[in-house]
Amino acid sequence: MNDPREGSQGPRFPPETLHTFIREVMKAVGVPSEDGDIVAHVLTEADLTGRHTHGISRLPLYVSRIQEGAMNPKPQLSWEEATFSPVRVLDGDNGLGSVAAWRAMEEAIALSREYGLGCIAVRRSNHAGAMRVYCEAAAEHQQILIALTNSPPGIPPWGGRQAFLGTNPIAVAFPRGRGTAPLVIDLATSVVARGHIIEAARRGETIPEGWAIDAEGRPTTDPLAALQGAVLPMAGPKGYALALMVEIFAGVLSGAGVGPGVANPYARGSGPSNVGHFFLALNPRAFGAANAIYDTLAVLEDQLRHVPPMPGHFVRLPSDRAEVVRQTYRVQGIPLDSALVDALNMLARECHAPLLRAE
After folding, report:
1. Among residues 3, 129, 7, which one has the least CA distance to residue 56?
2. Residue 136 in this model has a pLDDT that exceeds 60
3. What is the DSSP letter of 281?
4. I need a surface site. Which of 98, 175, 213, 351 has the fewest CB within 10 A?
């Protein structure tokens, strides 16, 4: 899907500027500095790869959840006693989802280095941002990471008209070695991430046909009606099955909320979300020489790129576009629409934090 910000004449910001702004707003609402840096990194990295629905646009939600007492700015993360050495369960204490997810990712990497794999389930967490960010961080340590998270009801069970499962994303990153960016696969199990519908509603725009149904189960192009109804699963019953799989791994195994038991953070008074995450780290060296694995992956990629293309198309890999966007934004700055910048600066004033200013 094309990013509506491409070609935008709105202000652009260096990623460092967004990171600093987010960290200072987090600090202003009582989030410890180290945790604020994690939140800032996760949100900025999402924007840097064009995932604007999971970037700084989520900051007002995080602040409002903290201010209304629905999210803990200073959680005491706690680990359950391990039954099996490479498997752990983390209680997020209703803190910022990106903080719990980051700590879980770090532990998964440590276990993977020691045992060849590390498996972490997280409960009592919140929205953790783009799962690809954690996978890319693991790949920097030459570890494969599969990341799953459930989310508030967004898609119906196949044949139903009421949202029950979240849009439950699946992400994985494969390190390529030699200082090369990892191969990243990151997808929602819905036709589109719900954040795109939220963004369309904020902008007063319509959404494409086939994205969603309203509360009566009728197709709709109205984002507000879609948010009252449900996003459709990708590939019909196959997407529904994948969303259910994620719900079991991230929600059932962790002891987090499942289905409607995951509260919608946009609904005031909804209380703790109780989101669940699931991280599985794998050490490539457990399967043979890492360089041999990287060489085989390179051959596979080369063969894919040389498949004859359809007319007017070319073959690309899942992470190609995000990497092009990343390099472009590092040079040109990350684009934000003016209405979002105004909203962020209003938030900063309310929190007595420094304003976001284009350089």
Report:
1. 129
2. yes
3. E
4. 351
Residue 187's φ and ψ, nearest 5 degrees, are -150, 145
Evaluate if residue 3 carries a pLDDT over 90.
no
Contact 182, 176 (CB under 8 A): yes
- SS3 of 280, please? strand
Active-site residue, from 127, 196, 277, 313:
127
Are 212 and 198 in contact by the 8 Å Cβ rule? The answer is no
Report helix, strand and coil shares of the chain as percent, to nearest 5: 45, 15, 40
Nearest to 77, CA basis, from 114, 111, 43, 102: 102
Q: Is 41 a catalytic residue?
A: no
> Does pTM top 0.90 for this prediction?
yes
Q: What is the mean pLDDT of the chain?
A: 95
For the residues 185-202, what does the mean pLDDT come to? 90
**Residue 224 carries which side chain, given as an amino acid letter?**
L
Q: What is the pLDDT of residues 277-319, one digit of tens each?
A: 999 999 999 999 999 999 999 999 999 999 999 999 999 999 9
For CATH 3.30.1370.60, the residue range(s) in the chain are: 75-190+233-305
> 96 pLDDT exceeds 90?
yes
Nearest to 249 by CA among 191, 189, 317: 189
- Nearest-CA neighbor of 248 among 274, 225, 278? 278
Percent share of the chain, pLDDT over 70: 97
CA distance 43 to 51: 9
Residue limits of CATH 1.10.1530.10 in the chain: 1-67+319-359
What is the β-pairing status of strands 87-91 and 117-125?
parallel
d(CA 345, CA 353): 9
Domain 75-190+233-305 CATH class label: alpha beta
**CATH class of residue range 1-67+319-359:** mainly alpha
For 81, the token pair is 């006693």
- The rounded distance, in Å, linking the Cα atoms of 21 and 23 is 6
